[in-house]
Amino acid sequence: MIPPAFEYMRPNTIPEAIALLQQHGEDAKILSGGQSLIPMIARPAYLVDINRISGLSYIKEERGFLRIGGLTREAELESSPLVRLKYPILLDTAHVIADPQVRNLATVAGNLAHGDPANDHPATMIALGAQVVATGSAGERIIPIEEFFLSLFSTALQPGEILTEIRVPVPTVKSGGAYFKLERKVGDFATAAVAAQVTLDASGAVQKVGIALTNVGPTPIKAKKAEDFLRGKKLDEATVRQAGQLAGDEAQPSSDLRGPAEYKKGLVKELAKRALSRAAERAGR
Amino acid sequence: MATKQMVRVKVNGRDREAQVEPRLLLVHFIREVLQLTGTHIGCDTSHCGACTVVLNGKTVKSCTMFAVQADGGEILTVEGLMQNGNLHPLQEGFKQEHGLQCGFCTPGMLMSSYVLLHNNPNPSEEEIRRGISGNLCRCTGYQNIVGAVQFASAKIEQGKMAEGVAK
Fold it and tell me: Which stretches of chain B sit within 8 Å of chain A by CB?
């Protein structure tokens, strides 16, 4: 679609970009991968293209965190040996986002900052207990991912801030995660999807657990009841089934073209079971 | 009217430049400014992949990118596949294996397959299907497209072996 006219700006540094965003306030929007922004009809008067800012594209472990730069593309997650080896849940997620061409441009940070509950990384990052770094004129501020998604298309990012880094705690031994999504066809948003990340203790009981749901509510949903239920328990079949039931109850889907609400709740139940079982396998149950 | 911006790109090996409005999509730049109409506009909403081109070695949907974003980059379109009057092995494969019927998706399919084979010269059937998963075809059921890519993969391999013998 041919969009209405806008002014285009291409800063080379983060401070330049922040200055432009502050100058134009609510009229300005950040252009990152652009794969959600460009197809949207509503358009800002100013687009601040941050793609030429150097040093924002990386995937590395440093000081206790996996750090994903603000301009890291989904395709880079897919091709990262570190992600493949230690963060299979991120690989699961990147694989089912849109399609190869879109993943070449789409950024992980943009997938979060867009605030779309149908996006896939929000649930994954909630399950992983990630943090995001928001950089503004006053410097950096760390936002826990649970506090990041406020409502539909609305996040804790302020107009003059850029999401410059995502931090995922480096998993300890006996940790594993998985992301299961049902989509009608390649490239579609999830009918429903579930992310699960577990850490087991020496006896095989759940020490830490994160479960989150995609596209079954106005924001990604952290399945707290299922998480509470699982702590201290071994992930046997009955326990996993019960956790899936609880997660299904926590979903708040609406009926739409992808299916009736009841069906989506049932789907969450099943996907949660599968995600938890795979996570447990990967943790070395 | 927004401030026009200069876009300088190398397209199929040739330097091209133009002053464009920022809102001009890359696909419109390629088709209307550069007059390279081999790249198709299908859905215009980032779903179908008919507009796929190669930008700096990676496939992108040129309907979901502004021309100004490509400034300084290198673009390969379907017009750039033929070399010295010879069809690219992929083009030959699509012809030999009936990898198209109406042909509308073909330019995008070719560009996705081109990058796929560049990164993975001997893909499995699953890898081929994954590689073209961002391109919709409504005629072939994909089977013959997979065959066309396999044809090209084998042909490129043979070419390399022949070159090796010649040396």
Answer: 1-3, 5, 21-23, 25, 28, 44-47, 49, 52, 58-61, 64-66, 68-69, 112, 130-131, 133-134
